[in-house]
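Protocol step 4 of 6.
Sequence for Purine nucleoside phosphorylase (Limnochorda pilosa) entered exactly as in the expression construct, tag removed. Do not edit the line below.
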Amino acid sequence: MPQAEIGIFGGSGFYRFLENVEEVWVETPYGAPSDKVSLAEVEGRRVAFLPRHGRDHRLPPHRINYRANLWAMKELGVTRVIGPCAAGSLQPHVRPGDLVVSDQFVNRTWGREDTFYEGPIVTHISAADPYCPELRPLALEAAGQVGFRAHDGGTVVVVQGPRFSTRAESKEFQAQGWEVINMTQYPEVILARELGMCYLNLALITDYDVGLEGHPEVRPVSHQEVMRVFQENNDRLRELLQRLVARIPRERGCACGQALESARP
Ligand SMILES: [Zn+2]
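Step 5 output, structure tokens:
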């Protein structure tokens, strides 16, 4: 089995990242991952890339086998997982084209397989700070260098989909002060943490969800609009990832890998 140290999940509109790849199908005890994993060298580092919806975008958010995807990364030796995604903004100051480096999530999904620990070993990991504190500042630096307007922290509310929100739902999320809405962050982030891997989210804002209060010209989100804005920013996101990969320290200085040690009663 080939090895990698950094894993990247491509989201909507982001199906390929690496050149000169070696492709592998990774078998997991949880079934098949979304696609073959592509491995290649980037800035002298071994990187694994997996499009979370499959490269032909055949898997809606609620049908993704998140456990198989994360297990495959772990199997390849990955210790850091980067999860870029398309996302909606819930607050006026977070604009389409911006990048949010999330630091919290709220889960509003249901029925998804969201743990590796189903007994007989009982495990409760802390989710207080799910996003890696070492990777977040590095991502913000790299984002600034390639010209993204980047936000340091933000709460992403993860909804089940595949439909977008009603106005009432979106209003509720806005009133909570949450910044970002998405359909795939949960359980991706928490499964990475259960396996002791660092997780970083880069939420590329493509729209204002149902629109913007007082701005009737801002139309509710459509899938076409998500893809359009994502394509516009694709090159910049690739550039950001390349710079980020180069500056990730080889040794981990965070506690993400120790989550499991204190998790068992
Ligand atoms: Zn970490």
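Step 6, annotate. The two ends are 34 Å apart (CA to CA).
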